[in-house]
Amino acid sequence: MPDESMNHDTPLPEEADRPEDKPRWQQAFGLAEMAELAIVGMMAGTDEALGKSLRERLRAIEADLDMEHSGRLEQLLIRRISLSWAQSHHGDVLVARAAPENLRDAKFVAGWRDRAHRRFLSAVKTLATVRKLLPPDAHGND
Prior knowledge:
The protein is mainly α. The chain has helices at 24-44, 48-64, 72-97, 103-133. It contains four helices and no strands. The model is unreliable at 1-13 (pLDDT under 50).
């Protein structure tokens, strides 16, 4: 269900910043950055202050999960956690706004929200498993 506040005019990264111009392991981060632009754009629309606040919250989540001192696999999972956290909460907002008289759209939005929440939980569980399996000295050294 399209949201009236969705911002489809979010600019893509400049040519020099495109994922395909980066080393292979960094390409995934470039795609995550593009996903973040889209997610924040959908949530904030044209409200720049809200967009900034959302990006700051995503960085705070990543800092809480020790992104800076994590290995590459952990960093990918931490990005997935922050992005799926945002999607899940965006789904909550959309469900709250769904018109009760339009049951089909309400069911679609609720399903979308539930899938986003499952992605969030899956990423959290996977990060916990990875961290449990890694030797203590491997944290941040891959």
